[in-house]
Amino acid sequence: MTKSKQFSPEVRERAVRMVQEHRGEYPSLWAAVESIAPKIGCVPQTLLTWVQRQEVDAGVREGVTTTEAKRVKELEREVKELRRANEILKLASAFFAQAELDRRLKS
Q1: Structure confidence at residue 4 (pLDDT)
Q2: How far apart are CA 101 and CA 99, in angstroms?
Q3: What is the reported pLDDT for 84?
Q4: 5-11 contacts, C-beta under 8 A, 24 or more apart
Q5: Any alpha helices (H) in the chain, and if so which ranges?
Q6: pLDDT at position 99, please?
Q7: pTM here?
Q8: What is the pLDDT of residues 14-28, one digit of tens each?
Q9: Which of 68, 50, 38, 55 is nearest to 13 (CA)?
């Protein structure tokens, strides 16, 4: 089993820039990606994903930008934490309400 490579942001940016600069020399985007990917050391699909992500971030292609996706992820995490805190508060409230009732009955 092989471990996937991690490419630095600089390598990704350079690879995407190479595709954009040489795109006109090829009949399609895929042909450009297939030609340039081996030079970077990645598979064509990975490079195509980087190119498409950059196009979305630049507003050239429809989709959710990286910044928006990151913000949504942060908000989802915050909602999850708040729901957990709410559940704890509900349980604590019920516990103390029951304790108050028990205290009144014993008095």
Answers
A1: 60
A2: 5
A3: 98
A4: 5/41, 5/42, 7/40, 7/42, 11/40
A5: 9-22, 29-40, 44-58, 66-106
A6: 84
A7: 0.70
A8: 999 999 999 999 999
A9: 50
Query: Up-side HSE of residue 77: CA atoms within 13 Å toward CB?
Result: 6
Within 8 A by CB and 6+ apart from 53, the residues are 66
Fold of 1-63: Arc Repressor Mutant, subunit A (1.10.10)
Place of tokens 């989802």: 76
CA angle 51, 55, 57 (to 5 degrees): 115
Q: How many residues does the chain have?
A: 107
pLDDT tens digits along 15-72: 999 999 999 999 999 999 999 999 999 999 999 999 999 999 999 999 999 999 999 9
